[in-house]
Specification:
Distance between the termini of chain B: 25 Å
Helix content of chain B: 55-70%
Order of helices and strands of chain B: HHHHHHHHHH
Shape of chain B: globular
Largest sheet of chain A: 2 strands, antiparallel
Strand content of chain B: under 5%
Number of strands of chain A: 2
Oligomer: heterodimer
Largest sheet of chain B: none
Order of helices and strands of chain A: HEEHH
Distance between the termini of chain A: 38 Å
Strand order of the largest sheet of chain A: 1-2
Number of strands of chain B: 0
Number of domains of chain A: 2
Number of domains of chain B: 2
Chain lengths: 92, 173
Amino acid sequence: MPNLKGGLALFALSSMLLVGAVAGERASGRTAGPNLKVGALMLPAPAALGNPQSDSRQTGTYDVLLRSKSLSEQREALRKIIDDPQKYIPRI
Amino acid sequence: MYLSALVRDPSLPAILVKTLGAPDVLGDCIYDCPALFALAISSRFGGWKLPADLDSKLDTVQDLKREIARISRINLKVGSIDDVVQGPALEEHRKEIEGKTEEQLIQLAGPATSSEETRIFAADRLGTLVSESKNRFELYLLVMNDFEDASSEYRSAVYESIYRAELAKAQGR
């Protein structure tokens, strides 16, 4: 439990920093890239805190297939879906 | 819809077939369209049976029945691009297409090629050339990256190549 509490606290802190960072970047006209850093702190993804995120990973793979401009990324996403199609039936 | 053709879960055609009377599907399916393609694949290669209670007055239902009948007659004989397209535009692009392998044509028909005409002729050639299933997923990726042309010629040609790849797969090739 202490680890989980610590992780949640870190995530909450990171989220606050992220909101502030995005607001600041919007104000400055820049956009946040995929590997947004705030100072030296790399924001941890929830999965890194031990929370299961299989749903969002499925959504990500599906969306990559539908929307990516990269054929190689689409190919990889298609392979993942074909390898385990039952995960994706609800989205299909 | 293209994924439903690939994945072939038995629940998917039952959902798709209910859309055949929807105005947007009726409009989209004036020419070859994803819904009819996916259902035709499911019927011919996925073991799905056309329900008996479909509204035969719908153009989509008539077209689906025709398409299922047509693809049951497809064979894997390699033809010529001249079997499916003729005219001065083809002559302008013939050198780009002639002598190319299946993989080269897939590359040429793909989104990295800037000329839509070139993509269409490459797809036309694939529709007369594919006789194995080795590039089946690549052909599906082509159609997932299709583009609007006047009469869905590109889409139709890629569908044809996928039908051939699916038939080859069913024959163990």
